[in-house]
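We were asked to recover a plausible sequence for a given structure. The inputs and outputs are reproduced exactly as logged, with field labels preserved.

PROBLEM: sequence recovery
POSITIONS: 97
GIVEN STRUCTURE:
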């Protein structure tokens, strides 16, 4: 049985990291990052409440409009939950490198 050749050398590779994984930010940077999400969260919640109220009020007088308003209310409620999930999630997603 032949012994494999053991030519082991030490090498090193320089890696360019464009953005560090953990960055230290201040409160203003955090607010600038999350303020549009908070605004969307509140806006979608208000749209859902408004469309739901109009849908309930018009479901018996103008049924097609009531159904459309209730469908819009559920759509905006789902977007509201999506924004809430983005705000309360503890995980950070790193895309690319």
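RECOVERED SEQUENCE:
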């Amino acid at each position: 049985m032949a012994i494999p050749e053991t030519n082991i050398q030490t090498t090193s590779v320089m890696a360019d990291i464009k953005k560090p994984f953990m960055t230290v930010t201040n409160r203003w940077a955090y607010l600038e990052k999350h303020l549009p999400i908070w605004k969307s969260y509140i806006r979608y919640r208000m749209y859902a409440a408004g469309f739901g109220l109009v849908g309930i009020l018009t479901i018996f007088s103008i049924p097609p409009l009531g159904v459309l308003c209730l469908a819009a209310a559920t759509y905006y409620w789902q977007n509201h939950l999506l924004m809430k999930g983005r705000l309360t999630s503890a995980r950070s997603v790193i895309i690319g490198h």
